UniProtKB/TrEMBL annotation:
Similarity annotation: Belongs to the oxygen-dependent FAD-linked oxidoreductase family.
InterPro entries xrefs: BBE, FAD-bd_PCMH, FAD-bd_PCMH-like_sf, FAD-bd_PCMH_sub1, FAD-bd_PCMH_sub2, Oxid_FAD_bind_N
UniProtKB keywords: Alkaloid metabolism, FAD, Flavoprotein, Glycoprotein, Signal
Domain of life: Eukaryota
Descriptive protein name: FAD-binding PCMH-type domain-containing protein
Signal peptide residue numbers: 1-19
Keyword Signal assigned: yes
GO molecular function per UniProt: FAD binding; oxidoreductase activity
PANTHER family attached to this UniProt entry: OS08G0158400 PROTEIN
SUPFAM superfamilies: FAD-binding/transporter-associated domain-like
Organism: Lithospermum erythrorhizon
Domain FAD-binding PCMH-type, chain residue ranges per copy: 78-252
């Protein structure tokens, strides 16, 4: 008897230590991968092993799992692993995955581009499967009506490329990094260089196909306006599996102009940045000038300084840009040599740092190097006082800040005209700009990742005095579990409101009410999903 349990223990031990891939699910003992797979095949015989479904026994499991994780913090051996990764090649394969996960008490993690800042599309603390939509990525552009249907698994680089292929004067106002997935990105808002002229990606969604918690495929008409509202900015993963979006494209001129001008602290970087804060939101809406700053030089050799880069897209030619800058921001001293004219689609390559790559670089899902990072966001309603920048520079001179970057993105223009409740994304009039705080580190430093995360929290505390308060607003697409987490998705509305109002301000309650109607059993849930708020209910 004793021997038997020792050998059983031994078997368990070797199982766990020899395969770091074993899900926590296995230890919690319950769900049976085989019966989940059987459930799928009973509904449809197209779930081919090692092709559409990948279990821990399949040779491609790790490759398929890890290729969809952008933040390497969530691809470590100790990260909880899914029982199965499912990569449908047809939309009809999605409802069975929802139904069988539900039937077998498994969590579902939906993945489109895998760029989630907290790894929410690839990691769960409960037994789970990953539904990876990377093969559902058709893009159908209709130039005549200026619209497009885009499947969730497409990346935005593909969308930009296909739009430009169809017309030189159409564009879409979404994010900068070309490998973002359409599914998660549009669900959280989606902003980029066209924000001041055209608003967010989510502002331009006109229809959607979604699989709900009952496995039904709905469109805008059949889902109704409440759910359609919630999908456009309420964040992915709370309401269903978005299969595709229909969007309105926006007009752009055939020629746009870009520039990147860096000023160090010795070149008045602080004063220029301080001044930028009170003017950039008020520039002509054709002019988007963001600021990116980080430490440059070397602390050891004593020439460390801050590089403050003014990085701009102008919707027009260089002559008009120069006269506009002369009028609006002469202090920057922009000259013609700083500027370059190009097409809008070329500007998307310029903004992600690959100006010399051929356009088909935009189609490459693995174009960008994966990183270890932690990020946070803020919104600013009053300029940060000049003296306060000194404290920011001091933090950036600290050791942990070698890979730190802060980005200020101007609001104003179109963003001021859209009501705060038009879609769940609430950050509109009244905001001068948004901030993204980022810190990157290397694989060698990953053992000390806590050090960098702690530094990021310190930077965020410092900024606290100067940014929006009550709530301290944040962007759901820059997901941050420090703001508060659901207890395995099982948290009261009141508790979730702590982070819910940071992301959605006054729209959080309506999101929770919609959730109660469309997913009352809270099947679609994660650490920061919208909790159901039951209303119209006696007692
Ligand atoms: C390098 C980098 C650059 C970025 N640049 C920008 C930028 O310029 N502008 C901007 O606005 N944001 C930017 N972001 C943030 C980005 O918008 C979010 O990370 C977004 O959620 C990514 O979407 P995804 O599909 O790639 O991510 P995923 O990790 O696949 O998904 C994100 C969340 O949405 C859920 N989800 C995914 N697909 C679906 C679906 N089909 N149906 C329902 N739920 C789904 C996931 O479960 C997860 O909770 C950037 C992120 C990175 C890493
Ligand atoms: C099974 O999936 C295939 C595509 O993969 C689809 O053509 C077929 O209609 C599905 N069958 C059922 C019964 O849903
Ligand atoms: C495997 O899946 C791919 C799509 O990812 C498909 O093109 C291919 O035909 C499948 N192979 C088999 C053997 O079914
Ligand atoms: C994995 O392989 C083991 C040993 O062959 C087998 O017992 C188990 O059922 C397999 N699991 C799955 C999910 O196929
Ligand atoms: C910095 O600003 C001051 C005052 O605004 C100005 O006199 C000076 O020439 C500027 N220096 C540089 C390098 O731009
Ligand atoms: C700092 O000094 C190094 C060499 O001493 C030089 O290469 C680098 O450009 C300098 N950086 C700055 C920001 O001045
Ligand atoms: C995609 O980009 C990566 C990194 O630049 C490169 O290694 C790879 O070859 C590219 N793939 C294609 C198909 O171009
Ligand atoms: C969720 O919380 C409720 C109330 O506290 C509890 O009854 C229920 O068991 C919890 N469910 C899970 C999955 O933890």
């Amino acid at each position: 008897m004793v021997n038997l349990s020792i050998s059983l223990l031994f078997i368990f031990f070797t199982l766990f230590s020899s395969s770091s891939l074993l899900a926590r699910a296995t230890s919690s003992g319950s769900p049976d991968t085989q019966s989940f797979l059987q459930c799928l095949s009973l509904r449809n015989n197209t779930f081919i092993p090692n092709n559409i479904t990948y279990t821990q026994n399949d040779s491609s499991y790790s490759t398929v799992l890890n290729s969809g994780i952008f933040n390497l913090r969530f691809a470590s051996p100790s990260t909880p692993k899914p029982l199965v990764v499912i990569t449908p090649i047809d939309e009809s394969q999605v409802p069975p995955v929802v139904e069988c996960s539900k039937e077998h008490g498994l969590q579902i993690r939906i993945r489109s581009g895998g760029h989630d800042y907290e790894g929410a599309s690839s990691v769960s603390q409960l037994p789970f499967v990953i539904l990876d939509l990377l093969n559902l990525r058709s893009i159908d552009i209709d130039v005549e009506s200026g619209t497009a249907w885009v499947q969730s698994g497409a990346i935005i680089g593909e969308l930009y490329y296909r739009i430009a292929e169809a017309s030189p004067t159409l564009a879409f106002p979404a994010g900068v990094c070309p490998t973002l997935g359409i599914g998660g990105h549009f669900a959280g808002g989606a902003y980029g260089t066209l924000l001041r002229k055209h608003g967010l990606g989510a502002d331009h969604i006109i229809d959607a196909h979604v699989v709900d918690a009952n496995g039904r495929i709905l469109d805008r008409e059949s889902m109704g306006e409440d759910l359609f509202w919630a999908l456009r900015g309420g964040g992915g993963a709370s309401f269903g599996v978005i299969l595709s979006w229909k969007v309105n494209l926006v007009p752009v001129p055939e020629t746009v102009t870009v520039f990147s001008v860096q000023r160090t602290l010795q070149q008045n970087g602080t004063e220029l940045l301080h001044h930028w804060q009170s003017i950039a939101h008020d520039f002509h809406e054709d002019l988007f000038v963001r600021v990116i700053f980080s430490r440059i030089g070397s602390v050891e050799t004593g020439n460390a300084t801050i590089g403050v880069t003014f990085n701009s897209l102008f919707l027009g030619g260089v002559d008009r840009l120069l006269s506009m800058m002369q009028e609006s921001f002469p202090e920057l001293g922009l000259v013609r040599e700083d500027c370059e004219e190009m097409s809008w689609v070329e500007s998307t390559l310029y903004f992600n740092g690959f100006p010399t790559q051929p356009l088909d670089f935009l189609l490459n899902r693995t174009a960008l190097d994966k990183r270890y990072f932690k990020a946070k966001s803020d919104y600013v309603t009053q300029p940060i006082p000049l003296a306060a920048f000194e404290g920011i520079w001091n933090l950036l001179y600290e050791e942990e800040a070698a890979g730190a970057v802060v980005i200020f993105a101007p609001y104003g223009g179109r963003m001021n005209e859209i009501s705060k409740s038009a879609i769940p994304f609430p950050h509109r009039a009244g905001n001068l700009y948004s901030i993204q705080h980022l810190v990157y580190w290397n694989a060698e430093d990953n053992a000390e990742s806590e050090k960098y995360i702690t530094w990021m929290r310190k930077l965020y505390r410092y900024f606290g005095a100067y940014v929006s308060k009550s709530p301290r607003a944040a962007y759901i697409n820059y997901k941050d579990y420090d703001l508060g987490q659901n207890n395995l998705g099982n948290t009261s509305f009141a508790k979730a409101s702590i982070w819910g109002t940071d992301y959605f301000n006054g729209n959080f309650k309506r999101l929770a009410q919609v959730k109660a109607v469309v997913d009352p059993g809270n099947f679609f849930r994660n650490e920061q999903s919208i909790p159901p708020l039951y209303y119209n209910r006696k007692n």
